[in-house]
Fold this protein.
Amino acid sequence: MKTLIIGGGIAGSTLAHALRRYGHDATVAEARGSHRDTGGAFLYLAPNGINALRAIGLGDVPSATGGFEAAGMDFYNARGRRIAELDGSDDLERYGAHGMVLRRARLHGELAERAQAEGAEFLFDARVVELRTQPDGIEATFADGRALTADVVIGADGIWSTVRRLTWPDAPEPSYGGIVDCGSWTEADLPDTTGQQMYFGHRAFFGYTVKDRVAYWFTNLPRRDEPDRHELADLDQDAWMAGIRRLHENDPAPIRAILDAAEHSLGAWPLYDMPSLETWHTARTCLIGDAAHAVSPSTGQGASLAIEDAAVLAHWMQQESEPRAVFEGFTADRKARAEKIVRFGRQIGARKVSSAAGSLFRDLTLGMFLRMGGKATAEQYGYQYAYRVPEQQPPSSTVDPGAPDV
């Protein structure tokens, strides 16, 4: 089956690698000019994401890209009192893997280069503008006039998916959630943390983890009006960081120490809620990753679900020769799981909103909420991808973990 993947991010690159391992043709069309031109700060890859990478021959990627283990979360209120914890000390025993923190650009670059090493073709500056279904395939036309025909097209092009818009013009659009996310990493005179440290600050939510005196931090900034798509693309870093420091000026000492040391944010990203889609596929087109089911960063599951999607879809392409049967099998395996995690993320996100009465209620009930959510967390982390691609020695890492991201 000749597959054209629109979007060369985490989902698209992982799928291309898995398809090539199975012996299928895979072409990736990426709108950016390079697989390294991705931006972003860092992400958490949960145990289920680590296990999915292992199943498709990419188990060494997190370590090769400088990732480090992070287990569990500690939650604090605005006065610095710990109000709840999510214990991750037995993650390895329960799930077969620890979660890991990784720099997004390194992970993305390594996945793309592994896919290319397997023989996947990458086309850059390739922005799709039209999809036309034909009797024996589907034709994609790009903004520069190029046209490609494939058996199937996979939309791995994120929450603002062009494939979704072209295929389902009446599909619901993402809705702005009232929060702008930003973050980076910076040297900080703080001890290493076992897990992630989460603070419900007076005016904004803040999270961090420390490894080797480097703090990986993020903050969720409340903003009622939706930013313009290009407004946050070129920040005045001095003014931006000054505003963040003001929001957290009365918050606990670790937050202030990190922000005093931080010179910049690696970007700012409005957070959106993705409504559930009636279907993810047609006879020859299918969505995966954020294009199908964008999840709140609060779940820590975005990248892991994208990798799972890629692994499962590659399996179904190996099992079935007719595209519709492939996509029906894939969505039967994936849709309910992904949408349940999306709903869980909405519940978590709602608890980040601060108010005097709401904060008191949250402080009293968060521990109970996390205990009740323990089953959901176990379902998320305990997912095991049941099929493995053919064994093959992966190539040596092409990413220098010590090199700076660009």
Observations:
- The first strand starts at residue 3 and ends at 6.
